[in-house]
Amino acid sequence: MELPFIGVFLLLAFGCCLITSDAAPQQKASTCGYNSCTPSKPGVINVHVVPHTHDDVGWLKTVDQYYYGSKTGYQRAGVQYIIDSVIKELLKDPERRFIYVEMAFFSQWWQEQTETKKAAVKQLVEEGRLEFISGGWCMNDEAGTHYNDIIDQMTWGMRFLNDTFGECGRPKIGWQIDPFGHSREQASIFASMGFDGLFFGRIDWVDRTHRKANKEMEMIWTTSNSPGEQSSIFTGIFYDHYSAPSGFCFDVVCRDEPFIDNPRSADYNVVKKVKDLEAHIKAKALSYATSNIMLTMGDDFNYMSADMNFKNMDKMIRYTNELGSGVNLFYSTPSCYVKAINDEAGSRPWPTKTDDFFPYSNDPHAYWTGYFTSRPAYKGTVRKANTFLQSCKQLHSLAGPDSSADGQNLIDSLRRSMGEAQHHDAVAGTEKEHVSQDYRLRLHDSLVDCQQDVGNSFSKILPIGTLELPQQEFCLHLNVSQCSITESSSRFVATIYNPRSHQVTTYVRLPVMNGVYTVLDPDGSELIVQLVPLVNAALRSIETERPKSSATHELVFQASQIPSLGHKTFYIVKTSARNGQHSTVRERQSTTVRTAEAGEKIAVGNGKLSVNFNAAGLIESVVVDGVTVMMSQNLMWYAGMNEGNANSIFDDRPSGAYVFRPNGTDATPISTQATLIVQTGALVSEVYQQFSDWASQVVRVYKGQSDVEIEWTVGPIPVGDGIGKEIVSRVTTQIPSGGRFYTDSNGRQTLLRRRDFRPTWTLNVSEPVAGNYYPINSHIYVTDDQQNAGAVVALVNDRSQGGTSLKDGQIELMVHRRLLYDDHFGVGEPLNEPGDGPGLVVRGTHYLLVNPSLAGNHPVSLIRPLAQQMFMRPWMSFSTTSLSFTNWKNNFRTEKSGLTAPLPDNIHILTLEPWRDGTHLLRLEHIYDVGEHSTLSQPVTLILDDLLADYKITSAVETTLGANQWASETSRLPWNTADKQQQPLKMSTKNSSTKTSVTLLPMEIRTFIIQMTPK
Q1: Does residue 488 lie in a domain region?
Q2: Does a structural domain hold residue 361?
Q3: What class of enzyme is it (predicted)?
Q4: CA distances, 491 to each of 228, 454, 488, 520, 582 (Å)
Q5: How far is 692 from 694, CA to CA, in rounded Å?
Q6: Is there a single domain that holds both residue 517 and residue 561?
Q7: Rounded to whole angstroms, how far apart are CA atoms 474 and 451?
């Protein structure tokens, strides 16, 4: 059923919560979905032949090069020809089936088709002959992606399918066949989207061997700590790869023999091929629990000449059924396969899994944990772009109706580019260098588009007088202290937008020229400011990556209580007059700068928190509320394993874009001592640490803050010695963590990790460093969790990275990699980013959180607020002005919230965006898990009617997480596990008789299509 548009919404009577349409929904076509499935036969092995293509949204070629089929020197692949060819072949025979996954490509192809061709494709979809699987914009990575990005890219792809094909285009199955490891949060997202199953191919080779032997290749994956079956999903693992069996690849790029069925031919091979296939099927069936198995027939960019594929598959099915024994082959799809085993299994209990599938290795020395960090600059850009996309969408909704399509088109541009960025060879960093550059260009151009829409939204929200809002400018290089408007203007306004659902207080740093500055808050009160000199050594280290800048200082001030989904403006004036008063002001704004003496111990702090440095210039302790926690922190490097280091193919595994394999188990400090420059002032005290000419840090403690900011700058990594290097930031404490540490899952759930251990199989430790690395998108921490009042030390990061705890009390995050050898897993070039020539320089931030005593609190309850704030950081725009502050305030709103009131501390608006035909998409999430906090982990009930400050929500219809089907009409297949039976899941909402009442359970996300009118 296609989601009805607002014209058939039943409006909320008195705001009642769950609404059903009083118009009959579109009736389901009788032959799509499970109704299109070929019945299995009893007493034989039923072989579901699944033709498919895996079309990377960028990898060896760019997105456009893959679509159009250009640059064949990199790879012979053209997606437009694949889809053309497949459609032609499907129309020839109603028995044939095909599945397609990547909507980035299919939507582009669709726009180029005639109405006649579109009608034919719709018929194929309605008859279940062409089925869409997963349905996202891409097949996203599962290690370097944030859950917000995953949900967005899936939603955007499924919206295209829903708008184009209605219910028959709705995916039922997750298809993550190529990502290099699989997260629990990804599976949880699929379950919340109403999927009945999930399939993938890449798991650890030892785990696969164990599962094959025990018939545990299929299971029920429990993906949440919350009770109930809603988060569980049937999960299947391929026998080996997602390609056709050896000898049965009939694609134009393959060399396997076709079926030669003329008995008079000297090359006649039907009997042999049937025997070979039958042997493969029966061997494979030994590892699966039912009489149904799946035979994947496809690979990367297969089916450009689909007639070759289908002609031979037709023969394969026909002759195997005629000549084989005990097997039944037929065209099928993953959803039909799931339905068949669900029908057959009955009350059979399935094994369960509660952890995840990281890290992935495919041999003893190939742990795919390097890509957790590969291309760190792009990973940082993707994280920032998500914040801006959320801000852009929120402001568009809050600005009111837009009569033109231009605003939506501008947002759609960034939606598409961010969807591409989540691909498992994009944000993963495993693409070729020229492809990486194309990803960055596409994302940059889309950011510029969305900047225009934000400017348009501000031009509606801010003006209250007769003047038009000045042009808004956005500075994308503030992290490297560059912004032309703040450097060159003597009078400008900074507008700070907060996309979070709670008020935020943050420190602002703007690159400026030296001088005396006045900063006025929205009420006209003058703020305390501090001018922090830019350290020359730090500027030199990023010169190749830094746009031209004249800044000599950073202007620092505190932006307090920025409203939820709202903004504050700050009026900034530079004064050049030189008199006694200004001298006093200059002194008050200045920063004391000195170079520490050799062997001098240094301490910086804010009264609540202090950081102590030893005589070598390294951190030796952190003091919190008078309690000292001994620790060390340093930048270190692993030597990447080079090529040609052994005779065995398994031993000869160099470190590369995918694989992290250090040459040895010890990381080497970049330096055992650091030169210190100490800068102290009214708002921030910071210590600049110079480890070498290519590695430095700034350790900052802001007034009133309870965390330590560590801004690292690394690169160009020297490789003139012929050794690739992988750089980590390591924190070592005395906390007795017992081999345990904790990491996030795609920025949301928190999972226990145990060193040198896997929960469901026995680990043979062949790579003691790489085999203990996990993806970190938000936080990693260690604690003495055997004591209720033990200490906790955490790092919160600003982009996805690899991390671990190799010793008790120790955590490390990898920040940069530069390698000289390809790891032989397909990309065909070493990970050696040039930057602007000599090598890439990267700057990023870690937030060190230290708590000496939990006093009964759960560690995550201390980490989540900081992690949320760092993920959804405020976004700034700037404009010059000749107006006085009074005139500015009389003409423009200097402060406004989009919400009537801030939401409870445990509730967050994950999504507010324009949807279709004047409706909007709203997602609310509970950001605490079960047991993380005595009060914040409890269910919360909200009233939606007056959620927004300027609009009344007049209708709210709940959907699944992907916003492509009504929650009230969603039913999933039931499965048995050893402990309890899962009933068919129907998502429902508890209603209040008078108000729009929405209750959120811990870690729950609820999605609504809303209609709103101005108050």
Answers
A1: yes
A2: no
A3: hydrolase
A4: 58, 22, 9, 12, 17
A5: 5
A6: yes
A7: 7
Q: Of 504, 369, 451, 462, which Cα lies nearest the Cα of 812?
A: 369
Q: Are 237 and 165 contained in the same domain?
A: yes
Q: Do 530 and 598 lie in a common domain?
A: no
- Shared-domain flag, residues 602 and 736: yes
The CA angle 870-777-1007, to the nearest 5 degrees, is: 80
pLDDT at 598 over 80: yes
**pLDDT tens digits for range 942-956:** 999 999 999 999 999
| Mean pLDDT, rounded, for 880-899 | 97
The pTM of the full predicted model, rounded to 2 decimals, is 0.95
Q: Strand 684-692 to strand 675-680: parallel, antiparallel, or no bridges (unpaired)?
A: antiparallel
Q: What is the CATH number of the domain that holds 978?
A: 2.60.40.1360
Residue 131's domain is classified under what CATH number?
A: 3.20.110.10
**Closest alpha carbon to 48 in 57, 61, 58, 39:** 39
Among residues 291, 326, 353, the one where a domain terminates is 353
Give the CA distances from residue 38 to residues 154, 333, 340, in Å, rounded to whole numbers and listed in that order: 28, 10, 9
Assess whether 579 and 495 both reside in one domain. Answer: yes
pLDDT at 134 over 60: yes
684 within 8 A of 532, measured Cβ to Cβ: yes
Nearest to 756 by CA among 482, 460, 473, 367: 367
Tell me the per-residue pLDDT of 480-524, one tens digit each, with 9 for 90 and over. Answer: 788 999 999 999 999 999 999 999 999 999 999 999 999 999 999
pLDDT digits (tens, 9 = 90+) for 17-73: 333 333 223 344 468 999 999 999 999 999 999 999 999 999 999 999 999 999 999
Exposed e or buried b per residue across 404-422, where buried means at least 16 C-beta atoms within 10 angstroms of its C-beta: eeebbebbbbbbbbbbbbb
Both 556 and 691 in one domain: the answer is: no
Pairing of the two strands 810-818 and 725-733: antiparallel
Query: What is the DSSP secondary structure assignment for residue 129, as one 8-state letter?
Result: S
Q: How many CB atoms lie within 10 A of CB 438?
A: 20
Cis amide linkage into residue 359, ω under 30° from 0: yes
Read off the tokens for 749: 């759930």
Is pLDDT above 60 for 88?
yes
How many C-beta atoms lie closer than 10 Å to residue 392's C-beta?
Answer: 28
- The rounded distance, in Å, linking the Cα atoms of 298 and 244 is 6
> Which of these is catalytic: 141, 149, 178, 707?
178
For the chain, the straight-line distance linking the first and the last C-alpha, in angstroms and rounded, comes to: 33
According to DSSP, the residues that pair with 776 across neighbouring strands are: 801
Judge if 215 and 162 occupy the same domain: yes
Q: Read off the pLDDT band of 404 (50, 70, 90).
A: low
CATH code where residue 658 lies? 2.70.98.30
What does the CA dihedral 557, 561, 565, 568 come to, rounded to 10 degrees?
Answer: -50
Q: Is 945 a catalytic residue?
A: no
Q: What is the pLDDT of residues 422-461, one digit of tens each?
A: 999 999 999 999 999 999 999 999 999 999 999 999 999 9
Query: How far is C-alpha 168 from the chain's CA centre?
Result: 28
Residue type, 543: E
Question: Are 506 and 636 members of one domain?
Answer: no
Instruction: Give the total number of structural domains in the chain.
Output: 4
**Is residue 530 one of the residues assigned to a domain?**
yes
Where is the domain boundary, 312, 330, 353?
353
Judged by average pLDDT, the poorest of 12-16, 80-84, 348-352 is 12-16
- pLDDT, tens digit, for every residue of 520-569? 999 999 999 999 999 865 555 555 555 678 889 999 999 999 999 999 99
- What is the rounded CA–CA span in Å between residue 981 and residue 878? 57
Structure tokens at 132: 């869409």
Let me know if residue 305 belongs to a domain: yes
Which CA distances in Å does 519 have to 527, 686, 715?
6, 22, 35
Q: Cite the beta strand spans of 596-648 per DSSP E.
A: 602-605, 609-613, 619-624, 627-639
Q: For 767-786, write each residue's pLDDT tens digit.
A: 999 999 999 999 999 999 67
